[in-house]
Design a protein that fits this description.
Blueprint: H1 3-14, E1 18-21, H2 29-43, E2 49-53, H3 54-60, H4 62-75, E3 80-86, H5 90-103, E4 107-110, H6 116-127, E5 133-139, H7 146-149, E6 152-155, E7 158-161, H8 162-172, E8 177-180, H9 185-195, E9 201-204, H10 213-219, E10 223-226, H11 228-231, H12 236-242
Parallel strand pairs: 1-2, 1-10, 2-3, 3-4, 4-5, 5-8, 8-9, 9-10
Antiparallel strand pairs: 6-7
Helix pairs in contact: 2-4, 3-4, 5-6, 8-9, 9-10
The protein binds 6-(methoxycarbonyl)uridine 5'-(dihydrogen phosphate) (O7M).
């Protein structure tokens, strides 16, 4: 199954749009692993994918993440997304993407700012043979993101904000989804207009960063990336249930 088939199937099965951001921290690797696995078991029926970022890879090492978390995710039929935010020249982008895909990740996150030629081209090349996914960051959730993503740049048809240009590139390059902060529902709706109904929009920034799950979905988000509102809650399972926004039938 491709990444897209896996996430749509899990979303329908668990009636959830939640991508769990597994961002737990602990200086002791074995405690970090236990906490991560416990969390996963308690929310597995209420999420549709798992996002892992570099802080977990730094804490546990890629091999341990592959042997424990990715293996468990596969057993639970939940796809895994590596939040690498790739943004380098082609050969290192390609190496990093291949390494994560070989370890078992179903999708990877990259920043489109590096451009196509000898930049993102290698990430898309690495994704192709195994039906892996590439998700591109087009507008971040933090307040400082406005400094750059809203800057206007001259195009053939006049000045356009950077985030709109990045979104057009995501379509052109056939990305499997774009990432737009849930803290910016207006931007989500503009991007939804630009990409049409089919390209998934992933929205982080729910709860701890001030975004609201239902508002983001109403604005056009397809999936919600949620971390602290679940794992830092006194009852992660109840929070995962409470934050669940069901996919349309
Ligand atoms: O729900 P939180 O705030 O605890 O965590 C949000 C997660 O989403 C965390 O894993 C961040 O790395 C990620 N994220 C953002 O918070 N904002 C962004 O603009 C982009 C991301 C992200 O997932 O980028 C790929």
């Amino acid at each position: 199954m491709s990444f897209e088939e896996k996430i749509t199937t899990a979303s329908a099965r668990n009636q959830s749009r939640t991508v769990l951001a597994l961002d737990l921290e602990d200086p002791d690797p074995s405690r970090l692993l236990t906490k991560s696995m416990d969390l996963l078991q308690s929310v597995k029926d209420f999420i549709c994918a798992i996002k892992i970022n570099r802080q977990l890879i730094l804490g546990l090492g890629l091999r341990d993440v592959a042997d424990s978390i990715i293996k468990t995710a596969n057993d639970l039929s939940l796809p895994t997304i590596m939040d690498a935010k790739l943004n380098d020249v082609g050969h290192t982008n390609g190496f990093i993407a291949r390494t994560y895909f070989d370890a078992g990740f179903d999708a990877i996150i990259a920043s489109p700012i590096a451009g196509w030629k000898d930049g993102l081209d290698r990430v898309f090349e690495a994704a192709k043979p195994g039906k892996k996914g590439v998700l591109l960051l087009t507008y971040m959730s933090n307040p400082g993101a406005e400094e750059f993503y809203s800057l206007k740049a001259d195009q053939m048809d006049g000045p356009r904000p950077l985030f709109e240009i990045l979104t057009s590139r995501a379509l052109e390059w056939k990305a499997n989804g774009i990432i737009v902060g849930a803290t910016r529902p207006k931007i989500i709706s503009i991007e939804r207009e630009l990409v049409g109904p089919d390209l998934p929009i992933y929205s982080p920034g729910i709860g701890a960063q001030g975004g609201d799950a239902k508002t983001a979905v109403e604005a056009g988000a397809s999936y919600l990336i949620i971390g602290r509102a679940i794992y830092a809650s006194p009852d992660p399972k109840a929070s995962a249930i409470g934050l669940r926004v069901k996919p349309e039938l």
